[in-house]
Amino acid sequence: MNDTFLRACRNETTEYTPIWIMRQAGRYQPEYRKIREKYSLVEICKHPEVCAEVTLLPVQQLKVDAAIIFSDIMVPLDGMGISFEIKENIGPVIQNPIKSIKDIDRIHDFDANIINYTGTAISMLRRELTVPLIGFSGAPFTLASYLIEGGPSKNFIKTKTMMYSNPDDWHLLMNKLANGMFEYLKYQVEAGAQALQVFDSWVGNLTPDDYTTYILPHMKALFIQLKTLNVPVIHFGFNASHLLELIQQAGGDVIGIDWKTDIKEARERLNDSSRVIKSTKEHTYTHKLFSMTEQEYTKTFPILQGNLDPVVLFAPQNIIEEKTKKILDSIPQQGHIFNLGHGILPNTDVAKVQDLVEFVHQYKRN
Ligand code: CP3
């Protein structure tokens, strides 16, 4: 069993920097495209043996240090009574977008029985895998944006309008989604997922002020509950450099850094805001009527994941290596999981990804 990835998530020393790739199973792989000729994306998810096969593809082909269950952030919504479609080159589409409280009321608690194929695929995979398996979900804001806009959005006008005009409805929707995603993530861990990632892909479209008011309480509630599952949780926000400290405050054992952010700067910024109490000494002065608590702080560095620009994989080999080295040299090996700074793109050359994995594995080998 190669547990390098899990060790890195726990800030333990590792022999080399582990690497996996967001969206590592997908259209850039000829084998995936072949399977897609027979099955739609949702059909792959609904056939556990096909789902397991697709999940294993990048592990065998790329030699990455973790597998991520093949699914989509929309899949668990089926288990809450929301129907959707995933359209090629567009993304998730909702037939009846949420407009009012009546639509929010129709969303029910997450029912794992409706999507039990995911759990079946996870258990099957655990029997075969020699690397850890990551489960995942979308974050409430990202999911809410699809539900309200009815599909992908540029300016999130409908979403923000609900947020500002009907904050009670908004908070109710976020609360339902946060609870649903907790139940879905718990279900994945019970089936065998050994780590989790929460994708907040579109949250970067909010100001820090709005994140604090409309998102943070729900994310905190989600991450507090996730702690009870005792697996490492990665929190990834895309385009979210301006929200990094807030994302860290929300929770997560590992913070995913997008490709637009300088990872060294991210580490320094999060270091300052992630001091933990090392010891607490209680001083009681019996001759005076007061007691004092003295706290000693340890500066802990955040555990980071990231953050090569996915488009760099289209560059010549020497440029890919130079940019990869720059990331690896800019922060210590301990507490770093290498990844792209967003999902891998459809036309990426598989050979270049294989070289990247090999390069990362060799560069800082002890
Ligand atoms: O990493 C993996 O191997 C697991 C696979 C995975 C998929 N979706 C499968 C998929 C993961 C982790 C996701 C998460 C996801 N889905 C996110 C968060 C990650 C991110 O990139 O920010 C988001 C925002 C979605 C919504 C979604 N689904 C989009 C935007 C698209 C792309 C539409 C397109 O055709 O370009 C999808 C479809 C989708 N989900 C594909 C895959 C492999 C595209 C390929 C296909 O249609 O077969």
What does this protein structure show overall?
The chain is α/β, with parallel strands linked by helices and 366 residues long. It has a single domain (4-363), classed as Alpha-Beta Barrel (TIM Barrel). It has helices spanning 4-9, 30-38, 41-46, 48-62, 75-78, 101-105, 116-128, 140-149, 157-165, 167-191, 208-227, 244-250, 263-272, 317-330, 350-363, and strands spanning 67-68, 85-87, 91-93, 133-138, 195-200, 233-237, 254-256, 275-285, 290-299, 303-308, 336-340. The strands form 3 sheets. It has a 7-stranded parallel beta sheet. A two-stranded antiparallel ribbon has the order 2-3. It has a two-stranded antiparallel ribbon with strand order 8-9. Helix 4 (48-62) crosses helix 7, helix 9 (157-165) crosses helix 10 (167-191) and helix 14 (317-330) runs parallel beside helix 15 (350-363). The longest helix has 25 residues, at 167-191. It is globular. The structure holds coproporphyrinogen III. Coproporphyrinogen III is lined by residues 22-27, 36, 41, 68, 70, 72-73, 86, 88-89, 91-92, 136, 199, 201, 238, 342-343. Residues 22-27, 36, 41, 68, 70, 72-73, 86, 88-89, 91-92, 136, 199, 201, 238, 342-343 line the site of coproporphyrinogen III (CP3).
